[in-house]
Amino acid sequence: MLLDGIRICCVALDRGTHVPGSDRLSRHVFNVWVDFGDLTSGRHDLELRFFDDDDTASVRTHHERVVVATPLDEATFANSDAVLHLPPGDGPLETRVAARPTMVRPARRPPLLQPPRAVLVQRMDQLGDLAISVPALLRLRALFPDARIVGLVTPANADLARTMTVFDDIVVAEFPDGTGAGHRVMTLTDQIALRDRLAGFAFEIAIDLSESSASRALLPLSGAPFLYGFGSGEFRYLTAQVEGYTHDRSNRHETVPHGLKLVALVEWLATLLGDHAVVVRRPELDRARLGTFGIGEAERYVVLHDGARLPFARWQHYADLATMVQAETGLRVVLITDGSAHDADDGIVRIGGRIPFDDFDALLSFCDAFVGNDSGPKHLAALRGVPVISLHMARTNWGEWGQEGRGVILSRKVPCAGCLIAQDPGLCGKQFACITDIAPREVLAALQDILGASLGCANAGANLS
């Protein structure tokens, strides 16, 4: 791999796998981590050269014009496993990344959104568009009673905006229909001027109430860190986006007033302000069920569960962890495995395969803590109010699928976080370092912290619903 003609890395490809349906094609996967921190931001020429081991004179090349962006600040993006800075040092990046400690984050994370001091609301269209927005704007004012709400409007609806007490200030900007373009336009000069006008408000949230995408690109001009509007994932610069449709089944057109969709947009914003985790216990679930597994009536224990729907999401060190937990906490250990369980004279309760749901529920509901992968059982344990230590691989964001409630979520920061590999483990190229590099000692330390906080307040038998 060369950047601006200078070699920046050289890696050997794997032997490849056969592509089904082809006699000649094979697939090679390479996941290359490169530190661009010392490069000048801007445009660069990237060249990939592929050499055949059997014919070194034969070279295939691929050229791309790429942009190296200004490095993101890890402290600003502390919750992202994809943003990491490495101190200067020698050795492969893989070794330096692996040397970083595993991230341990509380499962009860703060709301995505805090009550703001300044909010920008865009209605960069017509009189009627602002008129039907009034119910949503009133709901927004009720949601943020102490915020300074500023309306960004056009000359077409500015007079109406001035009569509305929901706005503390209004900013008027031209946003005309483009000639023959079919959408509204704003020149670069006008965009810079608008950005400068908005900068003094120090907005924390900027909202576009237009369902049309025409004005969405104006939101970043607000300077707000939280950008919000309608969308189904296509606006990557938005912090949050939502869509909702109703249909007349005969002609597929909308059936509810457009203003109602605007209220729904604000209501979805309201859900981001709070913690909606719940604890639901089963009062009728009898702890005596644990006797089937040799667990005494008052005996305290920890459950380890090694299963997950995706085989490559299964951390491989549960057997070692079970031995460490029993030796260093003094609590009984129940190891539930998707495979077969073998008996051993070490005091660890091993359960293999599928057991009746009520037995499984009881094992989770009455334990002192649960340790598991990104799986259904960890969410069930969290629902029952049990402290959960979950091991989350970085294929998806820990904040999305980490459990809610008590406990912690362990994950690794890796450059390829967010890969979304769903079925084919051959697509990784890094042997799933985001899960395999979590050390048993790190998991034990997280568990000991949880147990230290919960000793003396066991939840066994409590009805926490």
Description of the structure:
The longest helix is centred in the last third of the chain and has 15 residues, at 440-454. The strands form four sheets. Strands 7-19-18-17-14-15-16 form a seven-stranded mixed beta sheet, sandwiched between helices. It has a six-stranded parallel beta sheet with strand order 10-9-8-11-12-13. Strands 2-1-5-6 form a four-stranded antiparallel beta sheet, with no helix packed on it. Residues 455-465 have low confidence and may be disordered. The chain is 22% helix and 20% strand. By secondary structure, the protein is an alpha/beta fold. Helix 3 (134-143) packs parallel to helix 6 (258-271). Strand 17 (369-373), helix 9 and strand 18 form a beta-alpha-beta unit. The protein is globular, with a radius of gyration of 28 Å. It folds into three domains: 2-106, no CATH class; 118-271, Glycogen Phosphorylase B (Rossmann fold); 287-454, 3-Layer(aba) Sandwich (Rossmann fold), CATH 3.40.50.2000. It has twelve helices and 19 strands.
